[in-house]
């Protein structure tokens, strides 16, 4: 099995990335039903800074930023397990912007 090593530097355009190896979606997840999500708007704001994000980060933001019909967060707590140096902190930056 050939391993793929990617060096990602903060602030660099990641659009010319190499082919992903392995599963890019969670094998297990428990997500409560939700009415709307604000993740698309958050990603737009983030990308206006000149940075881009991975598809898995966008997919992870959907349930994190999910809301109900009253405008409240569906998930007050959210946990995920991702190996180190893969952009976990960027997910928080996207949410905070």
Note the overall shape: globular
Provide the low-confidence segments as ranges: 1-10
Largest sheet: 2 strands, antiparallel
Report the average pLDDT across residues: 78
Query: Structural class of the helix and strand makeup?
Result: mainly alpha
How many individual helices? 3
Distance between the termini: 39 Å
How big a fraction of the residues is strand? under 5%
Order of helices and strands: EHHEH
Index terms:
single chain, 97 residues, mainly alpha, two-stranded antiparallel ribbon, 4% strand, disordered N terminus
Provide the fold topology.
Blueprint: E1 36-37, H1 39-47, H2 55-64, E2 66-67, H3 88-96
Helix pairs in contact: 1-3, 2-3
Protein name: Terminase
Task: Describe this protein's structure.
- The protein has 97 residues and is mainly alpha-helical.
- The chain has helices at residues 39-47, 55-64, 88-96, and strands spanning 36-37, 66-67.
- The protein has a domain at 38-96.
- It has 3 helices and 2 strands, in the order E-H-H-E-H.
- Strands 1-2 form a two-stranded antiparallel ribbon.
- Helix 1 (39-47) crosses helix 3.
- The longest helix is centred in the middle third of the chain and has 10 residues, at 55-64.
- 11% of the residues are buried.
- The model is unreliable at 1-10 (pLDDT under 50).
